[in-house]
Structures are given as C-alpha cells and as structure tokens.
Amino acid sequence: MQLARRRAIFRRLQAANPHPTTELLHSSPFELLVAVMLSAHTTDRSVNAATRELFAVANTPQAILALGVDGVRPYLKSVGLYNMKSKNLVALAQQILQLHKGKIPHDRAALEALPGVGRKTANIILNMVFGESTIAVDTHVFRVANRTGLAPGKTPREVEEALLVNTPAEYRKDAHHWLILHGRYVCTARKPDCPHCIIEDLCEYPHKTPPPKARRVDARRAALGSRRRAVPPARAR
Ligand code: SF4
Fold first, then answer.
1. Which candidate in 120, 154, 174, 218 is catalytic?
2. More confident residue, 201 or 80
3. What is the per-residue pLDDT across 91-117, written as a single tens digit (0 to 9) for each?
4. DSSP-assigned letters across all residues of 97-137
5. Who lines ligand 1 at CB under 6 A?
6. Domains plus CATH for the chain?
7. The pTM is what?
8. DSSP secondary structure letter of residue 17
9. Residue with CA nearest ligand 1 atom 4
10. What's the confidence (pLDDT) of residue 234?
11. Res 235: pLDDT
12. CA 112-64-72 angle, 5° bins
C-alpha cells in the first residue's frame, strides 16, 4: 500500500478520535499492567468488572501480595483462565517488589520476564506508561492490518514489524488504539461494517461487506438464478 494511502487512513482515524486510549479501567501504571495482563483471551468488559472490585481493596504490588492467590482468585472469577492469572498476578507483584523496588520497569526484557506478561502487554506498557511509539498487536489489530493492506503479515510479530515500518511517524504512538478500536467496533471478525467504515475507499480488503441495497439486489439475483436452475432441462428448451 502506498504511503499516501496509509497516511490518509491514519488521518481519518485521528480526525474521528483525536485522543484514543484504552478501554481498560486504571488509575496507575500498576493498575494498567494488571488490567492488560488479565485481558488476555478475555473482553475488556469482564476485566473491568473484575478490577473494579479488586482495585478497591488491592491496587499496589504490596496489597496484591498480601492478598495472596486465594485472596485474589474470587475477584478474577469473571476473567478467563482465572486460576492461572491469579497465580501470575501474585507472582508478578512479588517480582516487581523484589527486583524493581515496587516500580514498573522501563525495560522490555524486564517487562516480558514478569509472570503473565508477553510482548503485547510489554508494548502497551512501553507505549502508555513510558511514551514509546511501540505498536501492540492483538487479534483486532492483526485483522485490521491484514484486511486493509496497511501491514500484511502471517504472525502478530510480522504485523507489528510491518506496522512499525509502514505507519507514518506522527501516527505511530496512537496507531495501536485506533486499529484496536476500529477492529472492535467496525471491522469486526465475522461481518465488517464496510458500508459505514470511514476508510472504506482506502481499504484493500477484497471481500468487503456490500451496502444493504446491493445485498438485496444480490439476494434477488441469487433467487432468480436458483429458480432458473430449478427449471427441468426439457421444459426449458
Ligand atoms: S472497509 Fe471493511 S474490511 Fe476495510 S477496514 Fe473498513 S470495515 Fe474493515
């Protein structure tokens, strides 16, 4: 995809949402780290439901460690894989206290060494807490980057690297939020809302959802076609 087209896509996404941010509730870097770590294979809504209660009683590494795994688990029941995430959360709090003096480390390797934290979570923390222009690739970003042609790739890492190269510098810091929100609410997995998509004319996806009128015409044509096919060959002649 040409640079002018890529730039136009981000210009429109920015115009529609000049200050994009995460939908995960948080009021400190530690809360953000916990929320992002919990959000793997889970919706933001169920993470928010869990952290709203959890953070009211424990929102620091010390408090999470004091709660322990058995104390944390009941709060995480609405979150997928909550048994494993409860253990990871307490181990993460312990590691932050022991190795990083209770602070979130500003270092990719140290972040990725925390229990339950992978590259995607590290990218979000580096971006949102430390202001780096990293681009985290989750399932929504992966889909939108591939469909639009912005950054095709077979793996999240390939897409991340392509996005870093293909995203104009002035849009790199917020690219993750724009693409994730576009994938979550417009370019959805099952049926992208192409007729209402603000980048429809710039997107290179070959299987766009047609507008409702065209869908009706297509349906009529399909019905006529099947009726014609249903006529026995002898009578058709
Ligand atoms: S036109 Fe359709 S496929 Fe392309 S980005 Fe928009 S919603 Fe997604």
1. 120
2. 201
3. 999 999 999 999 999 999 999 999 999
4. HHHHTTS--S-HHHHHTSTT--HHHHHHHHHHTT-------
5. 147-148, 186-187, 192-194, 197, 199-200, 203, 205, 208
6. 29-128 (1.10.340.30)
7. 0.87
8. -
9. 203
10. 44
11. 42
12. 100
How many CB atoms neighbour CB 56 within 10 A?
A: 9
Which of 113, 48, 227 is closest to 105 using CA atoms?
A: 113
Task: Give me the amino acid identity at 125.
Answer: I
Q: Which amino acid is at 197?
A: C
Distance, CA 185 to ligand 1 centroid (Å)? 11
Query: Among 138, 193, 201, 208, which one carries the catalytic annotation?
Result: 138
Contacts of 45 by beta carbon, 8 Å cutoff, 6+ apart? none
Closest CA to 133 of 173, 92, 186: 173
Q: How many whole angstroms from its chain centre is CA 228? A: 46
pLDDT range class, residue 217, cuts 50, 70, 90: low
How far from 198 is each of 9, 11, 34, 114, 143, CA to CA, in Å?
9, 11, 33, 39, 17
Which atom of ligand 1 is nearest the CA belonging to 193?
7
Distance CA(37)–CA(33), nearest Å, equals 6
Is residue 120 part of the annotated active site? The answer reads yes
216 pLDDT above the threshold of 90: no
Place of tokens 């995203």: 167
